[in-house]
Amino acid sequence: MKRSVLTRYRALAYITGVLLVLLTFGMIGKYALDMDAAADFTKVVSIMHGWLYVVYLVMAFDLGSKAKWPVGKQLWVLIAGTIPTAAFFVERKVAREVEPLIAEDSSAAAAKA
Hints:
This protein is mainly α. 86% of the residues lie in helices and 0% in strands. It has helices spanning 3-32, 37-67, 71-79, 86-112. Helix 1 (3-32) runs antiparallel to helix 2 (37-67), helix 1 (3-32) packs antiparallel against helix 4 and helix 2 (37-67) runs antiparallel to helix 3 (71-79).
């Protein structure tokens, strides 16, 4: 597996996670604190999170299929982008698990050369 697959996933996990935390704060401001400016903020952030979550799904699925994950694990990684702060923890765990696969592929490629 190429390192770029993991890098793309990690970038989208962080972006999606940050946007979801911002959206959560915006919703608290909009509904709990009755802030007028929060309505526009949540509209913009929710659209950004929605579109980037779709890209996150593609990148996470690509990573999971190349890492040959079981369906349950794949679903957990895909759902992590919908739970505030979960994407950060799942991304860290996934990066630790996938890193040896990248090292194995690069050493196998070096051995062939």
